[in-house]
Design goal:
This protein is of the alpha/beta class. 35% of the residues lie in helices and 21% in strands. The termini are far apart. Keywords: ATP-binding, Kinase, Nucleotide-binding, Transferase.
């Protein structure tokens, strides 16, 4: 039986002993040439939230605010070389995994995560860009489910991604989100943050943080903006950053939700491109200038 708890404002996040260690976060993802999503968004989010970002690039995209016009995959061998270079030198506490374009790369990433055993793993199962462009080969979904998701402390699918992972129709309301909780648990991750941002008719953006025997409802007012490119990358990276700083998982997720909400609130302060612009990762800094 799932237990729902409406989240109260986070007044005093819980820190553990990691708070005294440099919070190094590795992002493993694709590059967005437009700068709004992927590795670029990850590095911005990790930096803005207090972490130190390092990166392994899995694919190059020819991309801007209007869409993706090309994808060039990096070989699994070179992905492994990048991973070895980072892990052999840097004390990586948390890993965020984003776009992985094929089964070979998924296998390599899973193998190296098992080898180096970072303390936290956050997986954003990137499959579709904000523009609707497919970013993950359909044949790789099974590899993602069998090899990588069970290694994650939290996975952060949006509704279309959750639909693709468990083979159901895309939920159209919060009740239908609730109905797929048990199936999402069966993916093997320790927890799931099911993002409800695609429920555009709702006045709130409500996510469900699904644990082994509990469900926490995280809700924020929906912001009327077209500038939402890179929201999933940004949220998952912020969660990884807070974990690396020593916040417990529930606190890291709630802080990540608060951060992405404010980044969306301030998104229209930026004028970037002609399509779906990025969120404002450095809203605090920008307000101070």
């Amino acid at each position: 039986m799932s237990t729902f708890v409406t989240t109260a404002p986070l007044a005093s996040p819980v820190l553990n002993k990691l708070s005294t260690i440099t919070p190094i976060v590795l992002t493993i993802a694709g590059s967005d040439s437009g700068g709004g999503a992927g590795i670029q968004a990850d590095i911005k989010a990790i930096s803005a939230t207090g972490g130190y970002a390092c990166s392994v690039i899995t694919a190059l995209t020819a991309q801007n605010t209007q869409g993706v016009t090309g994808i060039y995959s990096i070989s699994s061998e070179f992905v492994e070389q990048q991973l070895d270079a980072v892990f052999s030198d840097l004390n990586v506490i948390a890993v965020k995994v984003g776009m992985l374009s094929d089964s070979d790369v998924i296998h390599s990433v899973a193998k190296k995560i098992k080898q180096y055993s970072p303390q936290y793993v956050v997986v954003d199962p990137v499959m579709v860009a904000t523009s609707g462009d497919l970013l993950l080969q359909a044949s790789a979904i099974d590899s993602l489910k069998s090899e990588l998701l069970p290694l994650a402390d939290v996975i952060t699918p949006n509704l279309p991604e959750a639909s693709a992972l468990i083979g159901v129709k895309v939920p159209k309301n919060e009740g239908e989100m609730t109905a797929i909780i048990d199936e999402l648990r069966q993916l093997g991750a320790k927890s799931v943050l099911l993002k409800g941002g695609h429920l555009e008719e709702s006045t709130n953006s409500t996510d469900l943080f699904i644990g082994a025997d509990s469900v926490e409802r995280l809700s924020a007012a929906r912001i009327n903006t077209h500038n939402t490119h890179g929201t999933g990358c940004t949220l998952s990276s912020a969660i990884a950053s807070y974990l690396a700083q020593g916040y417990e998982l529930h606190a890291a997720v709630r802080l990540g939700k608060e951060y992405i909400t404010q980044a969306i609130v301030h998104a229209d302060e930026l004028i970037i491109g002609k399509g779906h612009g990025p969120v404002n990762h450095f809203f605090d800094r920008n307000k101070a200038i």
